[in-house]
Amino acid sequence: MRRFTLLLSAFFLVCAPLRAEEAKPNLVMYIAPHEYSHEVRLGIIPVYIIWARNGPALERAARTALKPHFSQIDLCQGSNAGDVVVWLKPELRFSGLYASYSASVTAQFYRADGKPIGTLEATGIQQSSIGTLMIQEHVQMAYDKAMQEIARKYAADTGLQQAIYPAVAKSPCAMVPLIPVTTTKGQP
Predict the structure, then answer these.
(1) Which of 10, 19, 29, 62 has its CA 20 to 30 A from that of 87?
(2) What's the Cα-to-Cα distance from 167 to each of 55, 63, 65, 148, 160, rounded to whole Å?
(3) CA quadruple 180, 62, 39, 99: dihedral sign
(4) Nearest to 145 by CA among 72, 58, 71
(5) pLDDT digits (tens, 9 = 90+) for 16-55
């Protein structure tokens, strides 16, 4: 009997991490299509102007930073759905005075049925001069820092995590930008 109890205990210890992995919700990221096609003008106008795209850098940073918190991360393709949808809104700036790239991200979280459940904001700053040839790398690093802060805030916000109900009927992720939301500072 003692041997059976030890085997049963060992089985539960091995299966516990697998069970915790299953409990993570699926995430669908919505990034506006124009973030992939529209380039943002940066630089010191009219002396030096460069162009950068928000979408690819933001998507890569979000996948990396949010991976530990979700079982699956997909990009919104229109009709796909997940347990939670996050609308990522980027803003990229360059400060010639401080020689830095500043990437701000607003992450609006929606339950699968379209109900807004929370908003997180973060800014990542990457020091660099404007004349460098590694502009995309510095933009990527700024978005990486911003998304790591979003992930840290998500991990600390138990209210946001508890508001995700996997059993709710799922709406297509493309509906998120159509949901009317009245906002006050700090609340969805």
Answers:
(1) 19
(2) 30, 24, 25, 28, 16
(3) positive
(4) 58
(5) 444 444 578 899 999 999 898 888 887 777 777 777 888 9
Kindly indicate the confidence band of residue 81, based on its pLDDT and cuts at 50, 70 and 90: confident
Token pair recorded at residue 28: 């669908």
Gyration radius of the chain's alpha carbons: 20
- Secondary structure (H, E, C), the chain: CHHHHHHHHHHHHHHHHHHHHHCCCEEEEECCCHHHHCEEEEEECCCEEEEEECHHHHHHHHHHHHHHHCCEEEECCCCCCCCEEEEEEEEEEEECCCCEEEEEEEEEEEECCCCEEEEEEEEEEEECCCCCCCHHHHHHHHHHHHHHHHHHHHHHCHHHHHCCCCCCCCCCHHHHHHCCCCCECCEC
